[in-house]
Amino acid sequence: MREPSGQPMxxxxxxxxxxxxxxxxxxxxxxxxxxxFAQKKNKEDAxxxxxRGIVESMDDMPVNGAIVQLKNVKTLQIRSxxxxxxxxxxxxxxSPDIDYELKADYEGASSGSKTLSSFDSRxxxxxxxxxxxx
Length: 134
Prior knowledge:
Elements: H1 12-47, E1 49-56, E2 67-72, E3 78-82, E4 88-94, E5 100-106, E6 109-111, E7 114-116, E8 124-126, E9 129-133
Parallel strand pairs: 1-8, 1-9
Antiparallel strand pairs: 1-4, 2-3, 2-5, 5-6, 5-7, 6-9
């Protein structure tokens, strides 16, 4: 049999198999790509840590809008976080092999500096900061 263009017609069985193979490959990609990203995230989680906490005023109230600074003691790089409404802050993706210093400032008040040590093996450290008048 021939198509109107004069070309021989392909057997329907061959087209059905090719369609199934294409669908299988597409389905495999749909599941493989997210798995690859999950492996990368899990690998990153295994090699990093994070720190979070609450900034409180002298009367133990959470402070919204305080600036928390995280200083890498090795490179002296500083990252900042503005506390949320409930006074919380967080820093993620930190190296477990480096010491970090944390301090908070808000409207002329500062907290003392606290250290997240490389000897602290917690994956999720909690360090609360309390503001004192200057």
